[in-house]
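U., I forgot to send this yesterday:
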Amino acid sequence: MKKYFMVIVIGIILLVSSLALSQEDPLAYYRQAKINWRAFEGTQLTIGLNKHPFTESLRPLIPHFEELTGIKVAYVILPEEEFFEKLLIDLSSGGGIFDVYMTSPMFEWRYQYAGWIEDLNQFWNNPELTDQEWYNRDDFYEKPLRANMWDGTIGGGLGQGRWNAIPVMAEFFCQVYREDLREKWGLTVPTNYPDLLTTLTKAAEMGKQETPQVYGVANRGIKSWSTVHSGYFTAFSTYGQKDIYPDLTAAINTPEAKEITQIWVDILQKAGPPGWPNYTWYDAKQNYAAGRFYEITDCDFFAATYENPAQSVVAGKNGYALPAAAPDGNITSNMWTWALGMSSFSKYKEAAWLFLLWATAPQTMLDGTLIHDNFNPTRKSVWENPAVIEKTMKWGTEPGQYRKIVDDMYGMYGDIRWTPNPDVTTVGDIWAEALHEAYEGKKPVSQALDDAAVKINEFMKKWKK
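Result:
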């Protein structure tokens, strides 16, 4: 407890000092770099951004970049599905509206294959544009940095070859539950998926007695790869399953795959939200924060919202736990990392690179996390900053509970589980349709997955050698 108190004191001192220095001269840190920040003064960049907490952490800081460089920045912010659609139109047409855009490995595989995203290695290795020592790329956690590199091998090659984008946040998938209701209802924290089904079914029944009603579990449900990606794929990979085999045929309909999918569908049917097929991650996060659910197995970084009294009625009432385990004790989590990449159609690539350097520099990412809640940071120095430790240490039922989840995810359990290929989101969409068919009772789980596997195999034929 004494050590915990000292961390808090140090964190407060550093936070005050950091804010004071920022008020004195927010650009001093960047001027230490051996970079001519004014080289492209007068240029205007347009940034494509998803409606996301990272975006809200970046926006207030952009005026600092404009003052530092003389480069004007315009940005477009759209909800996730619309954002990807508009970005696809811009890239596929070669329009070049967006110089820089938010992206992620699953989309970069397609963009790279089509020639729509720049290889950042050429800018990184240019001493006239980059001060590598000042930037300190080794400060990034390996998994999100490696995830944004790919050599173009269909079915492999992750972490090699081209550097497509710079990770700005990482999310893993864990259990978040209402500790106050757990105690009230006499429930335990599930350690395996059959227990998870039993616990959430009980929670859904007990929640009917609450006013307003509390449902068992919040999960995404729209007919999209994103529904597969989060809690479901975490459970799926925990059971040792993959999306496709090395020969690029579907692997989603093995006996083990059908077993865990049946449990997942049962959870949704017995304890899930009304209207699950229309649920987005925005809905799941906001409604859990509004106190309408007992549990959610989704992004760990949602904790920044859940623990913020200005945005959540459940602040201080949450517990955090690793995903449930498979029968053999295995635990895994899928990983998503938002990143910033550069359009191959940008007319201002060097200026765009300066924006990428600035936006992902240690100080920018520290300010984004500490002041504007960009979690989980992808730089070790940010996550281990005493003021960030102080801010996050109290999240959970005991000091350090949330932080240990994130540390364990970076260290042991979390990683990208999708197999690299340019059509991975289409594979995910087909898979999500199977989940809908099973949930709605149109097909048994076994048939839905078998039929989806046939569709995936047909679609993936073009990538076979």
